[in-house]
């Protein structure tokens, strides 16, 4: 079994800050729009997973004992790329140089064919959990001990495919399955509750037979504790970790601002964003 990386909460917080800095700098150089709001809402979660929670090895990406990870909210691909670069999978400078170009492996949505280490091609919302159920079921049939994780946005959990997969995950007793939800309460152009009533959200998952943890998705200690509290993979109940997050977290003029679902940063806005991020970190 691949072991988790030995890393402290303080080191994880440093890496989350590094990820956000690099994300903003990429937005300042890329000649196009980046899904920056949702990237920032999930940056701490992806840091906790890639730097700690996932049993993975960038030097042995096909190890059959590795945990599997699916980014269901595929529009946050660049955040995942940078998280993986920090862990040693990819080269950050290459990401910056080629992101979003026609012939680049680093597309606006992840492609497993282009990028070894990426487990699934995603982008069409609502597909990550069904894919994860299939992978977890296969692992169970093979008596494998790894986990299958998927990170979803809360908006996509309005898709019927998500709840069909939730039923299947519990019916098949997939205790090796973990759904991590970025509950930032926003869609592209509105608050999520303005379009579809998701609350009582945790109770919905419990009603489908899942174990549920609710955490502050920007509290690294809470994220680590949740990952440490996962049941054995032989458990009969899948787990949902609902991460309460803020879209645009860490940049004051982006936080909860619908206009920053996606965008680009000129030189002045980039400096404002980096300064705000530094101030937020200092205050915390």
TrEMBL record:
Domain of life: Bacteria
Keyword DNA-binding: no
UniProt cross-references to Pfam families, sorted A to Z: Transketolase_N
Keyword tags: Thiamine pyrophosphate
Keyword field contains Oxidoreductase: no
GO molecular function, one term: magnesium ion binding
Domain Transketolase N-terminal: 32-273
Requisite cofactors: thiamine diphosphate
InterPro entries listed in its UniProt record: THDP-binding, Transketolase_N
Stated family: Belongs to the transketolase family.
This protein's name: Transketolase
């Amino acid at each position: 079994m691949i072991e988790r990386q030995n890393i402290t909460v303080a080191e994880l917080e440093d890496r989350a800050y590094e990820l956000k800095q690099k994300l903003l700098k990429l937005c300042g150089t890329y000649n196009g729009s980046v899904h920056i709001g949702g990237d920032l809402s999930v940056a701490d979660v992806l840091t906790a997973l890639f730097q700690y929670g996932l049993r993975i090895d960038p030097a042995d990406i096909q190890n059959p004992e590795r945990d599997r990870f699916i980014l269901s909210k595929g529009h946050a691909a660049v955040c995942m790329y940078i998280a993986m670069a920090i862990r040693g999978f990819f080269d950050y400078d290459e990401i910056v140089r080629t992101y979003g170009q026609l012939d680049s492996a680093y597309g606006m949505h992840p492609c497993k064919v282009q990028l070894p280490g990426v487990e699934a091609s995603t982008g069409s919302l609502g597909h990550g959990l069904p894919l994860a159920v299939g992978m977890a079921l296969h692992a169970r049939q093979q008596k494998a001990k790894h986990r299958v994780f998927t990170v979803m946005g809360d908006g996509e959990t309005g898709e019927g495919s998500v709840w069909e997969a939730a039923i299947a995950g519990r019916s098949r007793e997939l205790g090796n399955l973990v759904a991590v939800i970025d509950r930032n309460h926003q869609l592209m152009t509105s608050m999520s509750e303005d379009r579809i009533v998701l609350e009582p959200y945790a109770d919905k998952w419990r009603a489908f037979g899942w174990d549920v943890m609710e955490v502050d998705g920007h509290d690294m200690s809470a994220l680590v504790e949740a990952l440490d509290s996962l049941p054995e993979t032989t458990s009969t109940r899948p787990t949902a970790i609902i991460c309460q997050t803020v879209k645009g977290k860490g940049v004051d003029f982006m936080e909860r601002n619908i206009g920053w679902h996606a965008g680009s940063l000129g030189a002045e806005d980039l400096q404002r964003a980096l300064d705000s991020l530094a101030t937020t970190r200092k205050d915390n």
